């Protein structure tokens, strides 16, 4: 076991914060929400999943945040729609100083594109493939403002407005066919 790795979360400079989590991204957002709450800031959570069965850590998020908005793709819990729908509504009602987001790459990209329009400081917790976590293998390389960085040592929390999410998505999906193959093999082995 090795850690902690990477750079620590920045907690100190914010006012009203919105924490946007997609799926299991809630596990990344939760400790940030707890730290913000401890520091005395207003934290509003937006948690999005495909359906109510995929909600995780909702009680914990509710305990850490002043308010939590749930969105589901199928409308089985909370608002029927995407986290960005809830974010846009919130932005119209509330002055937001800071947005933190973690979850699927397209979701983080959509959040960043929306907050860029209103120049709201936004940080994304990036999730590229990582091998050593110490800056040696290059597996976690991300492009930030046109420059190569390693998410494991320069991040994982990066200014979302500077991230090349398209490239991050391509690199993260590089082994999907291999992963799918291995998953099929594992399921077959379980069935045997
Ligand atoms: S995980 Fe190897 S360089 Fe970041």
Describe this structure in words.
This protein has helices spanning 26-38, 58-64, 83-93, 105-117, 151-154, 165-172, 176-191, and strands at 16-22, 42-49, 67-72, 79-80, 98-102, 121-125, 141-144, 147-150, 157-159. Helix content is 38%, strand content 23%. It is globular, with a radius of gyration of 17 Å. It has a seven-stranded mixed beta sheet, sandwiched between helices. It has a two-stranded antiparallel ribbon with strand order 7-8. The two termini are 34 Å apart. With 192 residues, the protein is an alpha/beta fold. The model has no long low-confidence stretch (mean pLDDT 94). It has seven helices and nine strands. Bound molecules: FE2/S2 (inorganic) cluster. Residues 130-133, 135-140, 150, 152 line the site of FE2/S2 (inorganic) cluster.
CATH superfamily: Nucleotide-binding domain of ferredoxin-NADP reductase (FNR) module
Roughly how many Å is the radius of gyration? 17 Å
- Counting DSSP E segments of at least 2 residues, the number of strands comes to 9
Compute the number of helices.
7
Identify the bound ligands. FE2/S2 (inorganic) cluster
Question: Can you write the helix and strand succession as a string?
Answer: EHEHEEHEHEEEHEHH
What characteristic shape results from the CA principal axes?
globular
